[in-house]
Amino acid sequence: MPRPEHANRQFIVYFPTEHDLERWKKLAKDAGFPLSKWIYETIEAKLAEQDSKLKDDIIRDLSKLKEDNQKLKDELRLKSLALEKCQTDLFKLRHDVFLHPQQPGIIRYSEELVELLKSGGAWSGSEIMKSLHIDPKDSDAIKIVRKQLQELQDFGLIKEEARGWRWI
């Protein structure tokens, strides 16, 4: 019978054989604990080991996820650069006539450029290139945009101010 202060904290263990009980008592004695304390400490150690394994698994999973995330970021960056190059090439193909004005054909201004300028505000050259998803290092694309801006200004539709290009 447990002491009254331990009455609602007790648990009775039935061993399969007396030999098992004696074996556990010997293990507890060798460890320097009473049997109940040895059982408790052994179970706590096992639980701590499981917690440690779980934490190791979580840390390993987190590390793998961070690595995967970095790979995806790198892949996205590369694909974004490839997409920007494709968009720049497409822009140049659509508006190549601005580089070679002597070629016969219909001149079409970039709808995206016109809509961007109509949206309001002043747009610097770099903001225009970024908004059109055009590589700002592509000299032909810059020439095409600049030529369109100049012609739109000649028609009196836009004007260049200190802060950039503005729709009138």
Structure, described:
Strands 1-2 form a two-stranded antiparallel sheet. Helix 1 crosses helix 2. The mean pLDDT is 92. The chain has five helices and two strands, in the order H-H-H-H-H-E-E. The protein starts with 17 loop residues before the first helix and ends with a strand. Strand 1 and strand 2 form a beta hairpin. The protein folds into two domains: 79 residues; 71 residues, Arc Repressor Mutant, subunit A (Orthogonal Bundle). It is mainly alpha-helical and 168 residues long.
Could you give a quick summary of the protein structure above?
With 168 residues, this protein is mainly α. It contains 5 helices and 2 strands; from the N terminus they run H-H-H-H-H-E-E.
Descriptive labels:
single chain, 168 residues, mainly alpha, Arc Repressor Mutant, subunit A, 2 domains, two-stranded antiparallel sheet, rod-shaped
